[in-house]
Amino acid sequence: MGYVAVRGGGKAIEESLKLLECERVSTSAPWSTDEIEGTFPELVDQVMGEASLYAPRLAALALKQAQGSPDEAVFLLRAFRSTLERPYVSRPVDTAQMRVARRVSAAFKDVPGGQVLGATRDYSHRLLAFDLETEGAEELAEKRAELTAHFDEAAQASEAAGREGVSAVMPRVLDYLRAQGLLAQVEADDAEPVDATMVPLSFPAPRSVRLQTLARGMTQAVEALGYAAIRGFGPAHPTVGELRQGRVAVAVDHPLEAGGPEDAYYLGSIPVTEVESVFEDEGASGASEGAEAGTGAGSGGGSVSGVRAEGGSAEGIAAAVDGGSVGGGSTAGGGAGLALTVGYGLVFGRAETKAIAMSVLDHCLEHGDARYPTEDEEFVLYHVDGVEATGFISHLKLPHYVTFQSKLSSVRETRGAEPEEASHAAAL
Fold first, then answer.
1. Angle at 421 between CA 416 and CA 427, to 5 degrees
2. Cβ-Cβ contacts under 8 Å for 193 (sequence gap 6 or more)
3. Reported pTM
């Protein structure tokens, strides 16, 4: 819908759109969607996540059409998604079988399989690389060949030394805490998840809707509210038990003869980032009797170097736990005392900060204490949707002549404006 305030308003709108297209074609380079997808993979991931549609090529196209505006690109992709049929629903993805590319834990120094740093900017110096300004095809090819040779040599040296490579599938770090009864027990919820893209948001919202809304929420909004919860607007201070990044398999059942996982049809894999954050809760119930509860041991720092940190074992975690490195009081004799609870985050692609913030807000919303804005379900879920927020704020640019005249009249009445002044203002 468009506002047409005067005659010729429709023509003015058409000319405005032509001017916008003129600006695009006058200044943009003829990049293909493949080039956009390859050059800005994390931006593409952000658009896909907020649009609730895994389609890298279409996300790149939306970014090109939107001239790089993530908000507009998400709007375009969501609008397109609403036109698509949904002939199948996939089986739940098994993140325990993730093909891991990056996996770190801030709770333990030594974890089974080791800390796998993978590709990350966490340890970079954040200095502008001015050489990229003049980087051409030849420079790219040289760097590509050099780095490929480097990693090939590293793999050969590792094999010659008899060292095992990084396993593609790794056990969950928190499974060892679960096995020792240090995590608060929760009831399994096998209810059919509610599709947040198909039904209006209502409260109280089931956890499936909360997680979907956070996962498709505007990245900066989710991160800001997660930060606010840690800063004191919600009693939440997490330790990242495990962050894992990799690819998970997507499969669908036969439409007529649904069977078990072994009978499903494999469609492919998608990249995701999963986070399990650990929180210390006073008086949480369900921890096993006699178990020591408290915060995770050690720190995420350690002497981790290279792409893969050496060592790491189940025994290392067990020693940290049983040796008293886990603080807190005993739950013996009734199960009262400290316990560990988990917040969960899962997003498309490599949006690690968003996944961590999502796990913080998941924990906050599970508590649901309305005294804190970050634990107020309506406040959080209503305000993380980027399309709704952008649309509502943007509409303020559109004509509001009638409503403003009403406000203006009320102000004049209270100030006792002279008749001549009022008539002159009305002419405006």
1. 130
2. 206, 208, 212
3. 0.79
